[in-house]
Amino acid sequence: LAASKAAVNTAVAVAFGIFGSMFISLHENKWGYINIFDITSASMGAVVGITSACAYVNPWHSAIIGTISSFVTWYSIKLLQRFKIDDPIDAVPVHFSCSIWGMLAVGLFAVPDSEHDLEGGLFYTGSFRLLGVQTLGVVAITAWGCLAALVFGVVITLVFKSVRMSEEAEMLGLGLTDYPSLHNYNLYELDTEHLLQSKTDSQLVEQMRALIATVERLEKQ
Q1: N- or C-end of the chain: fewer Cβ atoms within 10 A?
Q2: How many angstroms separate the Cα of 128 from the Cα of each of 13, 86, 131, 151?
Q3: How far is residue 23 CA from its own chain's centroid?
Q4: DSSP track, 60-118
Q5: What is the pLDDT of residues 107-155, one digit of tens each?
Q6: How far is CA 162 from its chain centroid?
Q7: φ, ψ for residue 162 (rounded to 5)?
Q8: Which residues have a Cβ under 8 Å from the Cβ of 33 and sit 6 or more positions away?
Q9: What is the pLDDT of residues 12-66, one digit of tens each?
Q10: Beta bridge partners of 113
């Protein structure tokens, strides 16, 4: 029964995550079109968001959780872009931001279940206890992840001396250099002026110059 409930809640969350992302994409693109990459990231975000709560909430809860996950994913992506942090496969918005939301959602929406000794979330009991426990879990896991990543990063840097990407990759973004089929960047979010003035002979940069020139020419027609 728990497994079937988890499956239904996961499917519902993903469906509503997709609907939410379609609305956001249409709104951001002035109701002209839907960006498929927005939907892909948001659907993954909904899967992550419902994971913690899938066996402990009702389907209408998962609809809310999935919808909010799409907004969490979208605005996390925008926040990273605002601070010029390159995340070409949206790993942080999907797996970090939505996992935080999913853990907190348990503390909000969990249905009391005496059989499994679950006291229920804030909206059912009025108690902040479960939400507090989930918040503590978020803090502990985040601290552990940051510390482990720091240690791992230091070791890798000492072994390989440098883990920095090339100047060209920094300028274009890893979404275009390493994941050209997955990137969700607008062409004009790139530093096109710097790119066009670049003196490098890299084939990749030459291709980007040609692409930018072609798009600019088409827009003038």
Answers
A1: C
A2: 24, 36, 5, 34
A3: 17
A4: HHHHHHHHHHHHHHHHHHHHHHHTT---TT-HIIIIIIHHHHHHHHHHHHPPPBTTTTB
A5: 999 998 866 677 889 999 999 999 999 999 999 999 999 999 999 988 9
A6: 27
A7: -145, 140
A8: 25, 26
A9: 999 999 999 999 989 888 888 888 877 888 899 999 999 999 999 999 999 999 9
A10: 118
- Rg for the chain (alpha carbons), in Å? 21
Identify whether the C-beta of residue 49 lies closer than 8 Å to the C-beta of residue 68: yes
**Residue 59, both tokens:** 């389907």
Residue 33, Cβ neighbours under 10 Å: how many?
9
Length of the chain: 221
Tokens at residue 114, please?
């005496």
- Give tens-digit pLDDT for 62-81: 999 999 999 999 999 999 98
| Beta-ladder partners of 118 | 113
